[in-house]
Amino acid sequence: MNMELSRRAFLRTSGAGLAGSTLGAFGFGEAEAAVAAYVKPFHLANTVEARNTCTYCSVACGIIIFSKGDLRKGEKADIVHIEGDADHPTNRGTLCPKGAALKDIVKSETRLTQPMVRKPGSDKFEPIAWDAALDKIARAMKDDRDANFIAKNKDGVTVNRWLTTGFLAASATTNETAFATYKVVRSTGMLGFDNQARV
Ligand code: SF4
Fold first, then answer.
1. Could you tell me the CATH superfamily of domain 12-106?
2. Which terminal residue of the chain has fewer beta carbons within 10 Å of its beta carbon, N or C?
3. 58, 98, 106, 195, best to mutate for ligand 1 pocket (most atoms within 8 Å of CB)
């Protein structure tokens, strides 16, 4: 029978046997090895897997998020484990210490889950709805560009520059999103544009 087995599936299915045989080599008895071999499968039993990208740096390692409950079905999901994606061409299942700690970041009590705004004269940030935040940002950008856009330099040469606003984009996106972001930002004449991935 011709059976295709992904690298990830191979690691998962062979993990139990590997744990058992390794412990056996260290002199553990069959009973202890059997218990150790079943710890991981039980830990991830009945979880939903979702592929994603590490949020931290431009290496953009592939990760797999294991959760109890499926957000895609409208269920409340609790993330129980995050690990490197062994099928991902960038990291082949490995993660640096930051990526390996992703679950703690996701579950951190201080993690921002909504936009915040500090109103003029205020000394504190307050939550703002996503739509309202986007409208506010678009309004501020348009007003600033209208006031400060430089069509020609002092020698009369067309330059079309907008130097008074900058844009910082995220690295954990697809190539297509990065391409579209670059085109949109540059088409406004903005020069202050940076990204962890340096698109
Ligand atoms: S796991 Fe480490 S190297 Fe990979 S994207 Fe995350 S921070 Fe970067």
1. ADC-like domains (2.20.25.90)
2. N
3. 98
